[in-house]
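Input sequence (573 aa), recorded before submission:
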Amino acid sequence: MLPGREGKEHTVTALISDQVASLIEDGIRLAQEAQALPPFPVPHVGVERPRQTAHGDYATPVCLQLTEEARMAPRAIATRVIEYLPTASFLGKVDVAGPGYINVTLDSSWVARQTRAILETGDKWGHVDLGSGDCVQVEFVSANPTGPITVGSTRNAVIGDVLASVLDAADFVVEREYYVNDAGSQVRKFGESLYARYAQALGEEEPFPGDGYLGGYVVDMAAEFARQVGHSYLKMDRQEAIQALGERGIECVLGQARADLAALRVSFDTWFRERSLYDSGLFDRLLQKLRKDGYVTEREGAVWFTSPDLEEDAVLIRSPQVISNPEERPTYLASDVAYVWNKLMERGFDRAIYVWGADHHGDVPRVRAATKALGLDPDRVEIILYQMVNLKRGTEDVRMSKRAGEFVTLREMIDEVGPDPIRFLLLTRTVDATIDFDLDLAVEQSEKNPVYYVQYAHARICSILRYAAEQGWDPDHEGDVALLTHESEQALIRKMLELPEIVAYAAEQRAPHRLTFYAQELAAQFHAFYRDCRVVAEEDAERTRARLMLVRAARTTLAQVLGLLGVTAPERM
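Predicted structure, C-alpha cell format:
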C-alpha cells in the first residue's frame, strides 16, 4: 500500500449539481409512484449550467430523452416531474423551458447563507470527494537531461503540477514524478559534446561531433569542468572520459532543472532513473514474459513488439548492425514497457498519468498496447498530449531551436516575467491547443493581463478589509447574511459556489485550464460587486457586517483557486 492511501484528512464539499440531479431523479420516481408517469428505468440525470443566467442556475435535458419510454411529449414529462419534486432547502424556482428542459434556480436565501458555509470550510473550500483515496501518479516534464528546460517543457511542468494539485483537492492520493532519461544514445552524444568543448577549453584541437549539442550552455559547462579538474579527463581512456563527462553533465543539468523548477514552484516526490529499469533486470524479465506470451518477434537482427492492437510492429531492441553499443540498443518503447510495469505493479499506483508533448502522439497506442500485453488494464494509463508554445514579444515571434542552441530557457522566462504569469498564462488555453505566450503582456499591469486582473481582485479584497479595520470595523464579526439580496451580491455568491464543480470537472476531465477561466470569471464578478455595492457604510452597520463576510468569503474562494494554480494571492499591488 502506498503512503498516504489511508488516513488522508480532508473536508469535502457536496456538489450542488449532484444534489439537483438526485432531486430530479426522485421527482421522476415519485411521479411514477403516483402513476403520473408510466414505469420505466429512471435514467441518470445529467445537469448542466445554462449559458444565460436568466435560465436559472442549473438545467437538465433528461425529459427530452424520455419521450419513447413515457410515450408523451417532453414538456408534459417535465411538468409532471416538477409537480412531484421533493422539497429542498436549496430549491428556488423550477420551471419548464424550451422543448422540455427543466430549469432550476437556487433559493436566494439559501444562497446568501452559503457565505457563512464558505467561511466555515476555510482552506478546504472547493475540495470534493471524487477520488476516494485512489493513488495516482502524475509523471511530467521529464525533459531529456542534456540541456536547460525550455518553454515547451515549461508548459508541461505547469499542466502536470496544477493537475496534480487539482487531483489532490479531489481526494486522490497523488505522487509527482520526473522521469530521468539517463540511458541510451543521448548520454553518449552529450558526453561527446562535453568532451570536445572540454578539450577545446584546455587548448586542445578536438573536433566537435556532427550530431552534438551546440548550445552555449555546453561550452560554459565544459569550461567549468576544465576549471575544476584540469586535464584529468584527457588522461583517461577517451570512451571512459566521454561516459564520465556525460554522466557528470547530466547531474549538472538535473541540478539546474531542480532549481529552475523550484523557482517555478514545481517540485517532485520522485526523480526516477531510466537506467534503473535495466540495472535491476526488470526489462529483461518483462522481455521474457512478452516473448513467452507471443508478443515478441525477431527479424533483421532486431527484437520487435507485436500486438493485434497495433497496425505495425514496433522495435524494442535495435539490431547490433545498426547500434553496436548494447546499452544503446533498447528503444524508448523498451523503457516504456518496464516503466509502466514498475508504476502499476511494483509501486501499485491505481492510475498512471503521463504528460507528453503532442509530437509523441505516435507512442500512445504502443504504450497502451504494451500495457495490455503485460496483462494490465490499459485504462489505468492516461497520456495527456499538449501542444507547443509560441513565444512572442508583442507581435514578434521569439525563435527557439534546442539542437541549434538557440532557445529561451525557463530560467530566462522566470527572470523576465516571474513565475505567476508563466503558471497562469500557460493554462489559458486547453492543453490540445497551441498557445501564444506574450512576454510583453505577461508583465503588463492592466486588465489585459489576466493574471494581473485576477490578482488585483484579491488585492482589492484585502484593501477593503484593511480599510474596514482602520475605520473601526471588526472584519471577522458575524453579520446577518440574509441581507445579501442585491443582484451583484447574489451573483458573486453563486459564482463562488461553482468552485467545487470546477475542481471536480478539472479533475475528471484532466482539464487544469478550467481554473484560469474560472478565476477570471470570479474576479470579474467581484469587480462588479465592488462597483455596485458599497461595502463599508457607517449608516448601515448590519449590512456592512454582512458585506464584510461576503468579502472574506470571496477572498477565501479566490485564494483557493489561485493556490491550486500555484499563483500567489497578493494583499497589495
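Checked by second reader. Residues 3-11 have pLDDT under 50 and may be disordered.
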